[in-house]
Design goal:
The chain is mainly β and about 190 residues long. A 4-stranded antiparallel sheet has the order 5-11-7-8, with no helix packed on it. The protein has a 3-stranded antiparallel sheet with strand order 6-10-9, with no helix packed on it. Helix content is about 0%, strand content about 45%.
Length: about 190
């Protein structure tokens, strides 16, 4: 099997039986694959099927577990000066069957008993065989005092929903060019 008729990958099944079954791991759900079966007939003569194509459908993820669980995230600043809104990206693993959707995750500021939700970007990077989330890539901005640390927590559970992020980026176009305002930085791109 493979993504074209050169195949390039194979898996073997031993024994004499009418129906053979093999498991193909690591397939991309977005790709179309080509396959063929090669073996021996009952009389020992070689057998090869014609080319066939197939796609992989990922398993339907289970429902996210009830309740609210959390993963602590501590950001340490080794420098003697404070950092403000530094981008942080980290991978977070989840137990099998616990998280069915990335929609059930939010980032909280754990400083001072904090119940303040913070903007966060999450990206699914791996699933368990049952379809539940195995790894998330989490990106957020951290503000940490010099030579200090700051505690955050990633909450997940069926009742957890992320608040909508307020867009701070505006782009306006007119005859003279394009004006971009990020909230922190404003600049103009001249049309000429």
């Amino acid at each position: 099997y493979g993504t074209d008729t050169d195949y390039g990958q194979g898996v073997e099944s031993e024994g004499n039986c009418l129906v053979h079954r093999v498991v193909l791991d690591g397939l991309d759900p977005g790709a179309e694959y080509h396959g063929r079966a090669i073996g021996a007939a009952r009389d020992g003569s070689p057998f090869q099927s014609s080319d066939f194509t197939f796609r992989v459908a990922p398993p339907t993820p289970p429902e996210t577990q009830g309740g609210v669980s959390s993963v602590p995230i501590t950001v340490r600043n080794p420098y003697d000066f404070p950092v403000d809104r530094w981008p942080i990206t980290t991978g977070i693993p989840f137990p099998k069957g616990q998280l069915g959707s990335v929609d059930h995750v939010r980032l909280m500021d754990a400083a001072g008993g904090g119940d303040q939700e913070l903007p966060v970007q999450v990206r699914l990077t791996a699933r368990w065989p049952d379809g539940s989330v195995k790894w998330l890539l989490v990106t957020f901005e951290a503000s940490v005092p010099g030579e200090g640390e700051r505690a955050y927590r990633l909450e997940f559970g069926r009742q957890v929903r992320r608040a909508l992020a307020i867009e701070s980026l505006t782009v306006e176009e007119d005859a003279s060019g394009v004006a971009v305002d990020t909230g922190t930085l404003r600049f103009q791109i001249d049309r000429h």
